[in-house]
Amino acid sequence: MSQRLNWNSHELTAGWQQGTKAFYYGLGLEDKDLAQPQVGIGVPLLDGNLCNQHAYELAGKIAEGCRDVGMLGFPFGVPAVSDNISQGHEGGNASLPSRNMIASGAEAVVSAHRYDALVGLHHCDKNGPGFAMALARLNVPGLIVGGGTIMPGSHHGRPVTILDVYDSQAAAGVGAISREEADQILRVACPGPGGCGIAASFNTWGIVLEALGLMLPESSSIPAIADVKRDECQRAGSAVRRLLEQGTRPRDILTERAFRNAARALAAAGGSTNGILHLLALAREAGVAFGLREIQAIMRQTPVLCDFAPRGKGTMVDLHELGGTPVLLKHLLDGGFLDGDALTVTGKTLAENLADARPLATEQQLIAPLDAPLKPHADIQICFGNLAPDGIVFKVSSLKETHFRGKAVCFEDPRAIVEAVNVGKIQPGSVIVLRQMGPVATGMPEVLVATAALATPTLEGKVAFVSDTRVSGVSHGAIGVHCSPEAAVGGPIALLQDGDPISFDLLEGTITVHISDDELAARRGAWQPPALRYPRGYLAEFASTVTQASEGCVPKAILDGSVIRTQ
Asked: Which ranges carry the Dihydroxy-acid/6-phosphogluconate dehydratase N-terminal domain (predicted)?
């Protein structure tokens, strides 16, 4: 890379096509400004979502910080979908496609405007993954800034989160608590700006980004409303300028050791299954050979060390008060779970970043000692078998055993599961199968409404859930998702019938439908592909280009070599 910091933008500001400069003068820039590096600041704009409510404010602080160090920061918008507001209806189909839209939107803007660097803001579940994919695809210097976690609400003197909302609504549905109390929790659980405060998809990916080295230390754990979050954004420009001066690119950071660090941090934190999908996608974008088989080994070897909700009660605010994500990562580094030599966006190694992290307090309940983990292996495990030849991702935090056997009860609509639970049709020992919800079929929406319905006293830990779609990180129970191949393309999950015996063993990494090969072949011979019709153009476009979950649901062109990797 040239030592010229405006390595890309100078093609516009000093290139042969001088007409473009008219717009720069119209922005109030002077000739001296045109030699400054230009930084695109990706902003997920959605004022109607608490997670993103303050996004443009933080983008303005980042732009100010860029100006402070002799650069030009230009915020630009990308699509934003609330993973909470879109739950349980047709709008949920937009969630995963929005990740790919963010990646492509950021790629388009940064490449079209010849920006020298990219900063992406991570406010809701798909923002950070989308911008990380764009950084890997563009390979321009840059980093991701966390938008900040929400503060917990309070109900009768105890902290409550979005998890309590869904659990209390499910409890009210079966008469375990009053509807009045459930609605009281609903009104107070989300008191202001910030991403969901537990180890759900948003915070999982924040921790992962720090472990990967794409996010500055502590960025993922600072609350959205904190003054220090504004200070952090103001300082981001200095970090970007340093990356430009050093010539460090995202693919220098996104190595196999970085992905292994990320997977181990995800496992130890008790994070969301969505994190697995995004890691796979980012590895594909970065051209790193890192798949479900590699993740399977890491999940078996890494203990759960954090008692975040939904497995416990902790929030990211609790982690912030302990000293932030660096305290957790230093704990993992000391335990030998992380490779400290991995490069990060600070220009230093992960170990150097963590050298001054605050020691883990002894009088705390969030992070377990290395010699007394909450669980000897991850809550997330990967299984393969005749039901999921290309893999299925399990998250099992409430199942006492590592194996389960039950009879299939098949659905193709998550609301039908809620209704079946409410009338007592789902019994302990069942394997609830939800299909025709994969990336090609419907955009792979989250089905929290279904998994939350199973979190009742009579069913939790006593039933299993298997699907070709996704679940929110708020979900808990015995859950298997991302089943590949999906039903819509003829995966074995499409062939299941009510009453089929299904078993899985998490530590053996197997999942089996116990019917003969001849019976399975006969069913396949009789199977007809569903007639897929899409209610939205974006969904039809996504379905026509997307790979299966085992490949991270990236565009097919990323894998087939159609995209020329530059820089």
From this structure: 36-353
| Domain with 442 in it | 380-526
For the stretch 224-232, contacts whose Cβ atoms lie closer than 8 Å and that sit 24 or more positions apart, written own/partner, are 224/54, 224/147, 224/148, 224/149, 224/150, 224/151, 224/192, 224/193, 224/194, 224/195, 225/148, 225/151, 225/192, 225/193, 225/194, 226/148, 226/320, 229/58, 229/148, 230/58, 230/61, 232/145
H/E stretch holding 55 reads helix 55-68
Is 176 among the domain residues? yes
The DSSP call for residue 471 is -
Longest CA pairwise span in the chain (Å): 75
Q: Can you tell me the distance from the alpha carbon of 469 to that of 471, in angstroms, rounded to the nearest whole number?
A: 7
CA 137 to chain centre: 18
Query: What is the tally of structural domains in the chain?
Result: 2
Report yes or no: 343 and 257 within 8 Å, Cβ to Cβ. no
pLDDT of residue 25: 95
The single residue of 472, 475, 484, 550 carrying the catalytic annotation is 472
Q: In sequence order, what are the beta bridge partners of 528?
A: none
Catalytic site includes residue 472:
yes
Q: Verify cis geometry, omega within 30 degrees of 0, for the bond prior to 310.
A: yes
Packed helices 274-286 and 256-269: angle between N→C axes, nearest 10 degrees: 170
pTM over 0.85: yes
Q: Do 219 and 210 form a contact (C-beta atoms < 8 A)? A: yes
Is residue 29 assigned to a domain? no
Structure tokens at 394: 């399990």
Instruction: Please indicate, yes or no, if residue 41 is contained in any of the structural domains.
Output: no
Domain boundary among 135, 162, 191: 191
pLDDT, one tens digit per residue, over 441-468 is 999 999 988 888 887 888 888 899 999 9
